[in-house]
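Workshop exercise sheet. Pairs work together: one partner reads the sequence aloud, the other fills in the structure field after running the prediction. Swap roles for the next sheet.
Pair: D.N. / O.F.
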Amino acid sequence: MLDTKNWWAQAEGLNALLLFSKIFPEDKRYAAHFLKQWEYIKTSIIDPVNGDWFEGGIDKEPQFRSGQKSHMWKCTYHTSRALMNCIALLREDEYSEINAVAEHWRKTAESMH
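Structure field:
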C-alpha cells in the first residue's frame, strides 16, 4: 500500500479543521491541528521555488518535486476554495458565506448541550 498525502485532501483537511475550530471553539484541538496541517502544507505541499502545490506530499513521494503541477485530475478548485474559506474564517468576515455556515453550526452545537 502506498503511503501518500495528495494535495486535495490536505487542502480539504485544512479547511475542515479551521471550520471545526470555529464551530467548537472550546475544543482547542481543532485549532492546534489546523496549525499543524498548515505547517505540513507549507513544508511538503507548496512549491517554494516555482509556486503552486505539488500533487502530493514530497515527504512521502519526493518524485512530485519534478512532476506536473496540473493535469486532467489536478486543478485549483480544492486549493483555492480551501484557502479562500480559511482567509474568510481567519478574518472573521461576517459577510462571508463560510462564516455564516460556521456560526449556524456553532449555535446548533451549543443548543445540543
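Discussion prompt: Residues 7-23 form the longest helix (17 residues). What would you look at next?
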